[in-house]
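Progress narrative, Year 2. Work on EBNA-1 nuclear protein from Microscilla marina ATCC 23134 advanced from sequence curation to structure prediction during this period.
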Amino acid sequence: MSLTTIQLKTPYLIFLGDVDNFVFAKTGAGIVQWRPELVKGQLRFSGNNLSLNVPDMTVQEAAKAGAKSLVLGVAPIGGQIKDHWLRVFEEALALGMDLVSGLHYRLERFPSLVAAAKTSGAQLINVRTPASSFPVGTGKKRPGKRLLMVGTDCAVGKKYTALAMTQALKEQGINATFRATGQTGIMIAGSGVPIDAVITDFVSGAAEALSPDNDPIHWDVIEGQGSILHPGYAAVSLGLLHGSQPDAFVVCHEPTRLTMEGFPDTAKPNIAQCIEYTLLNGQVTNPNIRCIGISVNTARLPEVEQLPYLSRLSQEFNLPCVDPILTGCDDLVTQLMQGSK
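Result:
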């Protein structure tokens, strides 16, 4: 992994504090689900019944157990750090543990944290902030293979699909690495680039750094961001597409939305449009790009409609269509391997 990407020290102690709503603790839950071997335990305040089903630990206990980072596993509304959390953070820093945050509030805003980190030599890591500057993308073809998740909208399952695909590839003996482009993905992977925080001119260069030269048969499975057809976020999606130079992509989709999430005046594009535009724009840096399937988050469909919906899509596009939770990703892996010789 390039030194220009964020690097996190593992294992983690996951901070929950007094956040007792699972919706606001999905960062921590995602880490525990996908990388349980990186988690020493959780730190929650007295009276908090929310649990990630890992051992409860104090900062001191976690440090003795070898934890290297205290990770904020929560994302409350507004992304603010509460004042009464600071004592715990200062304690962790004093013991030499890095403090890792994916919230909007930068850790350096708090003088006590800056002082504690300076004294111990620990790091304050804001995952939403790139580790360094990036060059402009070159467009030069790199050794190795790359699979990119793209979406018809934001929050349609790109990260989950990328993680599930990486797992499925490894289970079939195929060398693959998950490449994270968002804050939760970075915490799960232990490294990555917060691609939407990179200056636009350098997004494609950042994507090149994220998936550098590799073995010719190795697959980088790249977490997507936004949608190439999104009125607000298309720029980062396009730069990620050009810099990733994907050999293949999976379209991720949520079938019940009529408009873009948070953009009620913008109709959501359909799967065919997403495939068409991704192929057209992806050919700029990889003329051989291809779509290998569709990943659908069917959670909001009635249970009796979920599998029939996947079947209809598969027939319509003549491609495998899966829900990673419902069906797994083996069909996508088969399709990927059939055209990767």
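The first helix runs from residue 26 to 34. The domain at 145-338 is CATH 3.40.50.300 (Rossmann fold).
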